[in-house]
């Protein structure tokens, strides 16, 4: 079968890097020649198992030479690929049903991946229409931990077009997960530019720092929650992290306190904010300056506008649509990101998701503004702020906190109120405060808010 032109470009590009180191996982290191050999091996297995172009195939696992080779082979075979990480394995049946998966390839850490056939009578709706176009596809899921996740369908060939423009060749850590839009972006951005991806077995702060030191990693894509955890632990002082040239952060709003601490801890590294959504992909973004919370989103094929304080984006590489939800684009192709922003001279500052804004007596409170102040307190290790219903005000500000040392709740509440006075308006100061023992972030290192907080 004739390959798609974009896939031909990608394979030829990778072949040009044949002798370069493509990937490191544990004690194993492979070159680009090895990666392409894995792709060819998987192409053979795909034929052996009778996997036809257009079939929907889930890839369950994490970054590995074999999993990456399988993804390339499925791309070449024009399959619709559904990457799934171990963090969602407990929901695999539900996700497979939503994505209309025909086959699953499971990497469970053993030497061989298992290929399974699922009972499927055919495809329906948007997916059926897309498959008839004979293009490779990509299905990702929204990351909400409650409710039914939405399945996002991308034209994978169009998705890859953004990597044709040459960028820096860097040794990059794949911190974001295999089924995360940022993780997919990291992998293909690195491969397209002949860089090396270093895949962690563990995403704890000590494990990440050890990998940076050992493999002289230059680019660390992370989340604000992980950076806060790293800086709070102080473990970065125990390792040589001088190889880091760039630290990118996204997936959630960065508190100023964490950003300032990161700037002090890594003075030689550029701190770059990224912006992306699973529905739109990772978009070109330029920070006003290293470590600035202001950024400009744009580039070829990208348009932005602000409507009632909310960012809207129109992109030529946006998703084709949801498989299990209504089309979110308006008649002109604009997507409402639900991110409230400020604008200044073409740059924007993201304040937070509209769904997370707390309405206190008609006045808006952005959780990250309150968290930023709480994180400046020596008593507070981490904080997650949310709104709770109130019959008089509509909502009140509630905060869950991890403390550095044991404190009585009444004492902590008094200290928080005292510290926040003069830094926050009275209506922004938390009324309800809970001390939490567990983490305030998900396994994707993203802050947990609302009813998702453990113990509620």
UniProtKB/TrEMBL annotation:
Keywords: Ligase. Residues 14-285 form the AMP-dependent synthetase/ligase domain. InterPro entries: AMP-bd_C, AMP-bd_C_sf, AMP-binding_CS, AMP-dep_synth/lig_dom, ANL_N_sf, ATP-dep_AMP-bd_enzyme. The keyword Ligase applies. GO terms for molecular function: acid-thiol ligase activity. Residues 369-436 form the AMP-binding enzyme C-terminal domain. Pfam families: AMP-binding, AMP-binding_C. This is Long-chain fatty acid--CoA ligase. It comes from Paenibacillus albicereus.
């Amino acid at each position: 079968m004739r390959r798609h032109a974009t896939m031909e470009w990608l394979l030829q590009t990778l072949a040009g890097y044949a002798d370069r180191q493509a990937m490191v996982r544990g004690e194993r290191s492979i070159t680009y020649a090895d990666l392409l050999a894995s792709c060819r091996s998987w192409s053979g297995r795909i034929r052996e198992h009778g996997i036809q172009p257009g079939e929907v195939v889930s890839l369950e696992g994490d970054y590995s030479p074999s999993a990456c080779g399988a993804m390339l082979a499925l791309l070449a075979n024009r399959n619709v690929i559904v990457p799934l990480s171990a963090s969602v394995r407990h929901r695999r049946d539900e996700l497979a049903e939503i994505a209309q998966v025909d086959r699953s390839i499971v990497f469970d850490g053993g030497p061989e991946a298992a290929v399974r056939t699922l009972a499927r009578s055919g495809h329906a709706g948007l997916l059926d229409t897309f498959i008839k176009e004979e293009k490779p596809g990509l299905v990702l899921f929204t990351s909400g931990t409650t409710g039914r996740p939405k399945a996002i369908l991308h034209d994978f060939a169009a998705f890859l077009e953004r990597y044709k423009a040459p960028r820096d060749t860097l040794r990059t850590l794949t911190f974001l997960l295999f089924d995360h839009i940022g993780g997919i972006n990291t992998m293909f951005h690195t491969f397209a530019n002949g860089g090396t991806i270093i895949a962690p077995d563990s995403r704890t702060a000590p494990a990440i720092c050890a990998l940076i030191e050992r493999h002289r990693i230059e680019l660390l894509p992370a989340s604000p929650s992980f950076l806060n955890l790293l800086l709070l632990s102080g473990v970065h002082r125990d390792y040589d992290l001088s190889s880091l040239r760039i630290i990118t952060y996204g997936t959630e709003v960065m508190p100023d306190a964490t950003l300032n601490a990161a700037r002090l801890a890594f003075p030689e590294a550029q701190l770059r904010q990224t912006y992306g959504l699973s529905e739109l992909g990772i978009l070109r973004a330029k920070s006003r300056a290293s470590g600035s919370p202001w950024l400009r989103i744009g580039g070829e094929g990208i348009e932005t506008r602000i409507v009632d304080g909310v960012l809207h984006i129109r992109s030529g590489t946006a998703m084709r649509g949801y498989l299990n939800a209504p089309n979110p684009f308006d008649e002109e192709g604009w997507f409402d990101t639900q991110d409230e922003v400020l604008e200044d001279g073409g740059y924007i500052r993201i304040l937070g998701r509209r769904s997370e804004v707390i309405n206190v007596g008609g006045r808006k409170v952005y959780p990250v503004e309150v968290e930023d102040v709480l994180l400046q307190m020596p008593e507070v290790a981490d904080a997650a702020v949310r709104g709770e219903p109130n019959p008089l005000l509509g909502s009140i500000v509630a905060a869950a906190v991890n403390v550095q040392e044991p404190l009585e709740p009444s004492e902590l509440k008094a200290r928080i109120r005292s510290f926040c006075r003069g830094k926050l308006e009275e209506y922004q100061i938390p009324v309800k405060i809970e001390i939490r023992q567990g983490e305030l972030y998900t396994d994707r290192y993203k802050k947990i808010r609302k009813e998702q907080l453990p113990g509620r």
